[in-house]
Design goal:
This protein is α+β, with helices and mostly antiparallel strands. It is 17% helix and 27% strand. It contains five helices and 18 strands. The radius of gyration is 20 Å and the shape is globular.
Length: 328
């Protein structure tokens, strides 16, 4: 139990099984049955903390604060080696890594990551929003690209310690936060498509304001008919770098045309936006108010916000909240 960091839950006190029926199809929450365990893992009780002796100057926490442009004073690091398992977890001063040019992360994109935020409430207490869900999704991402598994509860406890240490980096303003980026990479220094024999898990933090330069305003989306972000039965449901790199060029073209982001499509089926899931609120042909979103078919990311919105909408019971297999 932490005295200065708390977890925010959605409207439900505990995550419960969510389902919506469309015709004869049954959809379950991606997070309905989470297993955080692992055969081998590091432990938060063994965490070593090395305080920095050279604290950075913090940026101004206003609308000039750009996403991912500043890093905090400390980072979490834990290494893994095949046959030896996980090393002792550490929080150390923020610093660069040295990687061999043959590192397989460079050549085969063996890297996965997560993204979540730490906030401050009205009393200045650091808070996280359903961070356990991010740990579960991160575990699944690592498994998908053959990086070592870990206990999600242990990682979350280490992450909390990092947030406690970096609490002065959390902006107090509404809409601002400390972005937290857990990442796992291969540390294998050999060419060849193979399971890495070494890996590194690390967490960095960055204070952020509005994601878009326009601030918290509506954005313009471009429905791209020529490019596809992910394919059925592929890896679109995981946070891996290879899902994002190929979207940069089409995204740049959309910006040149006056748009903010791409709404990715599969033929005529709606997928997700470049940085988020998407919802539509409308009145259906039966005259019913309906909140709809594409279903998790393996091509889109199972967003924590997406799951939370569906949970809350279900509890509100003011309109239908459903996910469609084919939303065109």
């Amino acid at each position: 139990q932490y005295t200065d960091i708390k977890m925010i839950s959605c409207a439900a006190t505990k995550l419960r099984f969510f389902q919506s029926v469309i015709g004869k199809r049954l959809f379950a929450s991606y997070y309905a049955s989470m297993d955080f365990s692992a055969k081998e893992t590091f432990h938060a009780k063994d965490l070593i903390i090395e305080m920095t002796q050279n604290k950075k100057q913090k940026p101004v926490f206003d609308t000039s604060l750009r996403f991912g442009h500043a890093s905090s004073d400390h980072m979490f690091v834990c290494d893994w080696e095949m046959g030896k398992g996980w090393d002792t977890p550490q929080i150390i001063p923020y610093q660069p890594f040295s990687l061999d040019p043959m590192n397989s992360t460079f050549h085969y994109a063996i890297e996965g990551f997560e993204g979540l935020k730490a906030y401050k409430d009205a009393k200045g207490t650091p808070r996280l929003f359903r961070a356990d869900l991010n740990m579960y999704r991160f575990k699944n991402t690592c498994k998908r690209i053959s990086l070592p598994d870990f206990d999600g509860v242990e990682l979350l406890e280490c992450l909390k310690e990092l947030i406690k240490l970096e609490k002065d980096w959390i902006p107090q303003q509404e809409g601002f936060s400390l972005y937290v980026r857990p990442t796992a990479i291969s540390m294998c220094d050999k060419l060849g498509v193979a399971v890495p024999d070494k890996a590194r898990l690390f967490i960095i933090c960055s204070p952020i304001g509005p994601y878009y330069p326009s601030g918290f305003k509506p954005i313009k989306l471009f429905c791209d008919p020529n490019n596809v972000r992910a394919f059925p039965k592929g890896a679109g449901a995981y946070k891996i770098g290879s899902n994002y790199g190929p979207t940069i060029a089409p995204g740049g073209q959309a910006i040149k045309q006056g748009y903010d982001q791409i709404l990715w499509m599969q033929d005529e089926n709606v997928g997700e936006v470049g940085t988020s899931n998407i919802f539509f609120y409308w009145k259906n042909q039966q005259g019913e108010l309906e909140l709809i979103t594409p279903s998790l078919d393996g091509t889109i990311l199972p967003g924590v916000t997406r799951d939370s919105v569906l949970e809350i909408a279900k509890e509100m019971n003011r309109f239908k909240a459903v996910s469609y297999t084919h939303l065109t």
